[in-house]
Design goal:
Keywords: Heme, Iron, Membrane, Metal-binding, Transmembrane, Transmembrane helix
Strand content: under 5%
Shape: elongated
Largest sheet: 2 strands, antiparallel
GO molecular function, one term: heme binding
Number of strands: 2
InterPro entries: Cyt_c-like_dom, Cyt_c-like_dom_sf
Number of helices: 5
Structural class: mainly alpha
Order of helices and strands: HHEEHHH
Distance between the termini: 58 Å
Helix content: 40-55%
Bound molecules: heme C
Organism: Nitrosococcus halophilus (strain Nc4)
Protein name: Nitric-oxide reductase
CATH topology of the largest domain: Cytochrome Bc1 Complex, Chain D, domain 2
Length: 150
Amino acid sequence: MAERLTKSAARNIFYGGSFFFLGVFVILTIHSHLYIKNTSTDESTLTEAVARGKHVWERHACINCHTLLGEGAYFAPELGNVWVRYGGREDPAGARAALKAWMRAQPLGIEGRRQMPQFNLTEQELDDLIDFLEWTSRIDTLGWPPNVAG
Ligand code: HEC
């Protein structure tokens, strides 16, 4: 064995290491993609209404105040699990009515409390938005957030 690192050995380590980790990176990227498509995304219930609801969510920039699965602003509550928080798993109709009532009642105008604006959404927009939030609540987040308050 050579006592010192030769030029060719250094080159081989450099190229070998670069290609090895590039390969690992490509494999992990493919794995993430397939995991998102096949495991963590519930494609079978991804309806037109859910897609429209996402557009309502984007048009009104709810994310400027709220987080959705941790992404967004920390001014207002996490909404990735708001469907579960409102009891949507046990009583879907009740949760839907409660969420609509909440959206319609804004702003509450309670002194010293953060306010949410009134968006004047139509019945259809509210239904689509809630379909979107319901669908989002079913994304497999491996138990995140750790508590129900998000
Ligand atoms: C300007 C900031 C702001 C924007 C934009 C905003 N919200 Fe809110 N939202 C709030 C605040 C603040 C609260 C908590 C208010 C409270 O508890 O009185 C809240 C609460 C909520 C809640 C109740 C959460 C819970 O756990 O009780 C829902 C549902 C909600 N927002 C949905 C939306 C949707 C949907 C949009 C977009 C159409 C939106 N918000 C846009 C500030 C905002």
